[in-house]
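Example record

The entry below shows one chain as it appears in the dataset: sequence first, then structure tokens.
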Amino acid sequence: MAEVVLLPDQELEELARENGAGSVEAMVLAKLRCMRAKDRQVFAFQVGDYLMVGSPPDATSEARLIKPAAEDAEQ
């Protein structure tokens, strides 16, 4: 079953460096930095094969994030 996992900044930076400037990781890192520049308290999360940027999810939003990732994993 998929779960929402906090992706540490350092790990995201390493993945972006390894996978290149056009990678999903690099785009997520850029989005994270842009949102933080606006004083937003946001983090990077991995849900199954997906990466996202946002506030830490509560139980309800976490369940909504996990559902599509779990459905994708079943296919």
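Notes for this example: Residues 59-74 form the longest helix (16 residues). The chain has a mean pLDDT of 89.
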